[in-house]
Amino acid sequence: GQPSRVGTPAPGTSTVPTPTTSSSPAPAQPKKVEPKKITTKVVTAEANFQASADDLFALLTDEKRIPAWTRAPAQSTPQAGSDYALFGGGVKGKYVSLTPSREIVQTWALQSPTWPEGHFATLTTTLEQSSDSTKTVFKLDGVPTGMEEEIKRNLEGY
Fold first, then answer.
1. 3-state secondary structure 103-125
2. pTM above 0.90?
3. Contacts with 104 (C-beta within 8 Å, 6 or more apart), sequence order
């Protein structure tokens, strides 16, 4: 009869239970994508620049100097609470705090179909001046799980 054939690993029937088991969790999936329940990760990128911390701070926050490295229009008023936009609006957010030549804390959102709408990560940029270069650490906290690689490439592209 039929019931015994289902338990037998016959090539024709063993493929039938597989889709049923893999498709049963699928309906539960969309519930996880509610905006408030985004699982996030921290992405960090480090670089050493042959430049002073003062220069780098200006390069990262001065809207006249940002296009030198983004090669795109920027809007930036480096003061807490003000909005900024980089890469012609490809990245947007607000400055949270700025410590000249030391640290920049800002909210950060990628304007991309893959980035959840209305979700902001927090980018903390730390500048450590040494004798001939400045160690710069970009730490982005709140990157939606699954986007870490793409975002890390973006950060390292800076």
1. EEEEEEEECCCCCCCCCCEEEEE
2. no
3. 57, 60, 61, 78, 95, 97, 98, 123, 124, 125
Residue 142 · residue 119 · CB < 8 Å: yes
Measured distance CA(154)–CA(78) in Å, rounded: 22
Written as one string, the DSSP assignment of 8-51 is S--HHHHTTHHHHHHHSSGGGGGGGG-GGG--EEEEEEEEEESS
What's the CA gap between 114 and 150, in Å, rounded? 10
Measure the CA–CA gap between 116 and 144, rounded to whole angstroms.
8
pLDDT band at 37 (very low <50, low <70, confident <90, very high): confident
Q: How far apart are CA 48 and CA 44, in angstroms?
A: 14
Question: What tens digit of pLDDT does each residue of 44-75 get?
Answer: 999 999 999 999 999 999 999 999 988 999 99
